[in-house]
Amino acid sequence: MIPQIYIMAVITLVFSLALWGGLIYLFAGRTRRFLWLLVLGLPLSAIANLYIKQQVTIFIGQAAHIQPGLGLAAPLWFLAFKVLITPLVEELLKVSPLLLRPAWRMVVSRASALWVGLVLGVSFGMGEAAFISYAVAQNPDYASIPWYGFTGFMNERLMTCFAHGVMTAVLVTALQRRNRQLALLGYLAAVSLHLFLNMPVVLYQFQLISIELESFSMVLPLISFAIIFEKMRRTARGLGEYEDEKEIVYLQR
Amino acid sequence: MDPQQIELIKSFKPRRSYGWLWLILLAMILIAVGVAPWLVAGTTSSSAMLTMIISIPVAFTFIMLAFWFPSMRYELTRDELILRYGPVIKYRIPLSQIRTIRRRNLGLTIWSSIRFPGIALFKIPYSDVGDVKMCATSALNNILLIETQKEKYGLAPEKEEELVAAIRRRMEST
């Protein structure tokens, strides 16, 4: 029998694609030209988790003679490093598809940078959902849970896709300005937002908050992300990069 | 009501849409999301109970809104246009306060009250025209936007030109 989490992962991916793909299509002015980028970010979470974050953490731990599996008993700087490694690596990796010429060529304006960033981030988020479902499937503790017991996974991953989109949009919008200082600032802003998003999980892992509070405290970062997204979208719109809608005036006085 | 007054009230239907299906679908998803953890973890899990307590009332609200969907209509009286949706919406637009009537597509924002393909209700912020009090079977496309001194209202009448002509006639006669 296939691990039950995979059924929920498929439902989550279909929902994410329909919801975020559909919204990007509508937000970007009913155009499909950004949607092919959804493929590019899919493998990046697995690459980050299997080949970069884990190896770097092991390397640093060995270099500093820190025993593996210490958990919260590890030195504070190492714990801080483990918290930081995820946003530092992932924010960089999420924009790596821009190294491909056809992808970078799409970043021609503030608005297009916003949509390219959003699509790449959502794509990364979908890949992350698939990777997490794979990781959960390897854990025998979850083997007895039926697929409908993973609705929490679906809720969290749906929202996280959007959050990844906003973080990547912040960085791509900065990269579009073609200024090194702004690019660095954009990267640091994306990393800070990522830390903010991860904070409830980190606080739970440090046993500072309960699992219930951790589940519901994700709402605050998500509202903040929605505000940031709207702000970026309005700025892009203010720059006159959208076409005016045609309208029929029936009466004016 | 005075028979003369009844004669003066003209009712207009909104355009056909499947907006009610979205409300039902969302309600079903919310029920599934609320009930599934409870089925798995049982009543002893506080987070499963909390999820159910939050999601079930919201799902019920969506079901009620779907139930009232056929009641959406626009009533034109001698001096006002009334937008109705069940017992939850009754927007009165005095004809004397109408400044513009135009049909246009509206720009999406991420914020919303009730806005799905085929239905838009209550006050919704739009990226291009700002806050609009919606009572329409379309969320973005071909919205009849009525602007007064204080508010903007969004409609989607089936016989749009007929409604506009009737409004103009009443405005001219008062």
Pick out its properties:
heterodimer; A: 253 residues; mainly alpha; B: 174 residues; alpha+beta; 2 domains; four-stranded antiparallel β-sheet; 37% helix
Compact overview of the structure:
The complex is a heterodimer of chains A (253) and B (174). Chain A has 253 residues and is mostly helical.
C-alpha Rg of chain A (nearest Å): 20 Å
Number of strands of chain B: 10
Backbone CA Rg of chain B: 19 Å
Instruction: Report the order of strands and helices of chain A.
Output: HHHHHHHHHE
Largest interface: A-B, 31 and 32 residues
Share of helix of chain B, binned: 25-40%
The fraction of residues in strands of chain B falls at 25-35%
Query: Which regions of chain A contain 5 or more consecutive residues with pLDDT less than 50?
Result: none
Task: Outline the structure in words.
The complex is a heterodimer of chains A (253) and B (174). Chain A has 253 residues and is mainly α. In chain A, 68% of the residues lie in helices and 2% in strands. In chain A, α1 (4-27) packs antiparallel against α5 (110-137), α3 (76-94) packs across α7 (180-205) and α5 packs antiparallel against α6. In chain B, a hairpin with a 3-residue loop joins β9 (143-148) and β10 (152-155). Chain A binds chain B through residues 23, 26-27, 145-146, 148-149, 151-152, 154-155, 211-212, 215-216, 226, 229-230, 233-234, 237, 242, 245-253, and chain B through 32-33, 36-37, 39-41, 46-47, 50-51, 98-111, 127-128, 140, 144, 164, 167-168. β1 of chain A pairs antiparallel with β5 of chain B.
Describe the protein's topology:
The complex is a heterodimer of chains A (253) and B (174).
Chain A: H1 4-27, H2 44-63, H3 76-94, H4 101-104, H5 110-137, H6 151-176, H7 180-205, H8 211-216, H9 219-238, E1 248-252
Helix pairs in contact in A: 1-5, 1-6, 2-3, 3-7, 5-6, 6-7, 6-9
Chain B: H1 3-8, E1 10-12, H2 19-41, H3 46-67, E2 73-76, E3 80-85, E4 89-94, E5 98-104, E6 114-116, E7 119-126, E8 130-136, E9 143-148, E10 152-155, H4 160-173
